[in-house]
Task: structure prediction
Amino acid sequence: MNKIIIGVDVGGTNTKCGLVDTRGRVVDRARIDTRQYLSKQSLLFSAIVDTVLGLIQKYRGERSDILGVGMGLPGLIDTEKGIVRILPNIPGWRNVPLQRMMEDRLGLPTRIENDVNLITLGEWKYGAGIGCRNLVCMTLGTGVGSGLILDNRLYRGEGFAAGEIGHMPLKRHGLKCNCGGSACFERYVGNTVLVKKARRLFRDKTITLEQVSLLAAREDPRAVAFWHETAVTVGDALTGVVNLLNPRLIIIGGGVANAHRFLFKTITDTIRARAMTVQGAMFVIKRANLGDDAGLIGARVLVDNPDL
Ligand SMILES: [Zn+2]
Result:
């Protein structure tokens, strides 16, 4: 028996499509340059359908071996009705009944989900979070997001909008955020913000976070201090999360997590020093380990678990 599912992970830059087998392995894949299809919602939809049909055509097994489609999208998704409410970085996607549209075109049962939730499902069942009952999966990239597994279930919130860890305000006043708030966590540790900060600090208009990490590895004091300060900010923010949710595990992925060698110990120490006794003693931090495939693998979990 070799049942397959189709995963689609829509991003503002790339859209990944793949076939995922019963062991959570991506056995075939295709990529769409999302930016070519941003002018109209129907263009990107058609590109996704065509790419998926291409993968189905190449698939050597029986068509009846294909169980369904799982899709992740970067925005607010009504998973009960199967409607994309809004994608902040992809224009024209508002109240799109995507689940039905996919099912009509492909004749396969389809489920849609927020992209970070999909990554969380993948890491939970096939990655860093295997066997864990309560976890927070945080992506530290240009945006800062999270997915929550609470008591062995994906927690979506009343309006499917839970997990916006990057938009927890860290103080009363501060930098304005594109969510409409201010002093949001993301405004201190998002990739873009850190790059800007590093460029000011090193008076170098081209320095990258990778280069700051290389400098930190050579014990450059400014680079070490840069990552230390970042880690303390992350730790401060996560202390509240740990006290509130009492997770066993915090998984951290995304581009900024590439600097895990300079971040994770200080994040952990900061939380242990500040959190309440029970919560502070029982959490651990791990790096996400499915990389770019986490969303596709999460699609497998979504299709396999209709009750999630
Ligand atoms: Zn915000």
User: Anything to note?
Assistant: The mean pLDDT is 97. Residues 156 and 162 are 5 Å apart (CA to CA).
